[in-house]
Design a protein that fits this description.
Length: 211
Amino acid sequence: MLYAGLVLYGVSEGLQLRAGLGLGPWTVLNQGVARHMGLSIGEAAIGVGALVLLLWIPLRQRPGLGTVSNVLVIGLVVDATLALTPAPGSLWVRVPLLVLAVVLCAVATGLYISPRFGPGPRDGLMTGLHRRTGRSVRLVRTAIELSVLVTGFALGGSIGVGTVVFAVGIGPLAQFFLRLFAPAPAGAAGTGQKADAANPVMSDRSVPDPV
């Protein structure tokens, strides 16, 4: 599930780029970095992810298999998706492509987070700052996302209606798929019971940042 989710996440990011209607905050940053550094979007994503991991050191966050895989796999798949997918010209194609990309991103989030092989670099930054500052997860996440979005836009990243669609849709959709793919808690095997609000990863109050 981990690698299926990471591959699907990279595909969703590539499709959102191909839709050309605006990107999520971290992809805006990756695009801006890529334009200034002469890198591909995937290479920029890997570089940004590695830099975010360095911020884990003072926060005393511990990476896992999923953390390292997140940094490497998504960037490689984004570049592969862009290489294999032509850019659509018609708005009638680009709008459905944007919607598909957001839904796929949410499915991917459920697939790669549910196995719990370690948070992605951005998730770890969020939870680390939450623990260090004592601020709410919602406030920390919002501050990070806004900072990343503004920085990416200043570097030339694309903001548009797709940015709004992603911001509004990804939280509820990701929460749905996190619950759908969640393993049954210990002692609940065969009952069909999924992880509930006692699990902070699956709680409605704390949806992990999918990227």
